[in-house]
Amino acid sequence: MLEMKACGLCGTDLAKLFQPQASAGVRLGHEFAGVVRAVGPEVIRFAPGDRVTAAHHVPCGSCWACRHGSESMCPQFKATNVDPCGFAELIRIPRLHVERVAFRLPDAMTYEEASFTEPLACAVRAVERSQVLPGDRIAVVGAGGMGLLIAQALLARGADAIVLDIAEKRLALARELGVRAAANPAAAGVRKTLTDLTDGAGVDGVVLTVVNAGILEDAQRAVRAGGRINVFAGAVEGARLAMDLVDLYHRELTVVSTYSSTPATLAEAHALLAERRVRVSPLISHRLPLDAFDEGVRLQREGLATKVIYHP
Fold it and tell me: For the chain, how many helices (H) and strands (E)?
């Protein structure tokens, strides 16, 4: 049993709340950290008083999806969860989670920092699925909370991140976090902005944290031959994207998507936070009590927040 001390609001929480098929009883909140208040008789990894963070889903590790590196497609993955959710004063962490996706906080790590373990793990997985190598120049389109985590994960991997956003405040934050090239593509467009920043060579890959037909087309034209496009963003139900298949074929481009994290990327993310190789405190724009949940949702929906963290 975990007493929640910090829980972040994620874009997927908003999607669950406002999607047309949203239903009562949906579980919200999966970016949490807290202190252990009680443990079951078989728990040996943790004890009351330990400060812990955990993920909400656990793959089986042995099915086809898990064996092929798609753990988030494992049937068990979405079937598992914490109880009742992260936005609760007390959270029950099941045995599987305790064994495979729970981490003790180092003394220097705050609860707020630890609550970024899961979203940072998603960012790390996006970098992995983009097959990024040290020295690669990777564009991140969108400098929201996830875009800035992906940018830092790229830097930690030794890559050069280029961040695009239309909000100057977010671009300034990207620079503060170590991104050397942060630009507003509103005037020139995504394609020209990226080709200009790379002296016409094109980027080695693009990670899209916002997506529509125009952005995808620009990303395809801005990626060098053999490059990769990673769709790291949801879309409205029924959305369709068209691509130039002749160009896709002749230039051997690869299009992938990234959904959620894995036990391995959770461990890597937790280590990056512990080693201070990724900074997350500057991303927190609003701190609110749980009883102001609706206010945090409003701020996030209206684009007024980079990251909302709730406290009990």
Answer: 13, 13
